[in-house]
Structures are given as C-alpha cells and as structure tokens.
Design a protein that fits this description.
By secondary structure, the chain is an alpha+beta fold. The protein has one helix at 49-67, and strands at 10-13, 22-27, 79-83, 89-93. The structure holds zinc ion.
Length: 95
C-alpha cells in the first residue's frame, strides 16, 4: 500500500532563535535519547518533552490517515515541520 502521507524526519535544530546549531545526523528513532539534551553551542534544550510528544501525536495521526486508503494522486506537497519547544508544530511549504 502506498502511503498518502509520509514523514521524513531527521536531525535536530536548536530552538533558540539566535542560535544556528543544527545536527542533521540524528535519526528519528534516536530522538527519544535527546529529550532535554542541551545544545552544545548555547545550552538551550534541543528537544523538549512537549515537542517530542507533539511529534509522536502527529506520527500517530498520519498513521491513522494512511490507514484510510485515500486515493494517491500525482500531486505532491512537501512541507517542513518545525517545533517551537512548547509542543506546537508549524508547517511550512518547502521552497
Ligand atoms: Zn543553541
């Protein structure tokens, strides 16, 4: 079965807006090990429990949507998902 929605998640970005730290090498399965981990550059928390929970909820929602067997079209939308450290996810269309 083709998944209508797929999530490709990897890497962690510092939530501090004035910090540019990003680690692209963290696979999604390892996020759980990074909850409350500190940014090596500025000491901010890289991944809060709230953000992690929000991501898990989103994954569950997508898994449910994919079970509905929605028609797959040629149209593709690629979105960037960002979290703000407070458990809010924002979706941005990727340029
Ligand atoms: Zn930082």
């Amino acid at each position: 079965m083709t998944e209508v929605i797929s999530i490709i998640a990897s890497g962690l970005k510092c939530d501090n807006p004035s910090c540019d730290y990003i680690n692209e090498d963290i696979p999604q399965e390892e996020y759980i090990n990074y909850i409350n981990a500190k940014c090596p550059k500025c000491g901010s928390v890289l991944l809060t429990q709230e953000d992690y929970d929000a991501m898990q909820e989103f994954h569950n929602l997508v898994a449910e949507l994919n079970k509905l067997d929605l028609p797959v079209t040629e149209d593709k939308f690629i979105m960037d998902i960002e979290s703000d450290g407070k458990g809010n996810l924002t979706f941005k269309e990727k340029e």
